[in-house]
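Input.
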Amino acid sequence: MNGTEEDRPGRAQTPSAAKVDTVGWGVFLMWVGTALLADVGWPVFFVGTGLIMLGGQAARRRLGLRPDWFALVLGTCFVAAGGWRALDVPLGQLAVPAWLVPSAFIAAGAAIVLSAWRGRGPRP
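Output.
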């Protein structure tokens, strides 16, 4: 859940950034276990995951750390996807074509995988 220049893997990480990342992963794993036990369904799982990611970014801001833009955008996407599913809005009723939203997620994932495969890491 990190991504800023001073706290990327392989580089020295500030104690505050390391603590935020550790707490974030712990809360996420507790959420996964709770969501599985409670059988909350995909909409609630997505919103909860997104809120955890956004909460991590709020903690980073409060501690004066630079934001992790990837986590910020992904958290927002999770909250939006969960909200759409919770409201049971069919993709065909959105103001955009039904294929655009899932295609955007697929394209973003493919771009990340390809950049990692080609050896290009995140940019500072």
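The longest helix spans residues 15-38.
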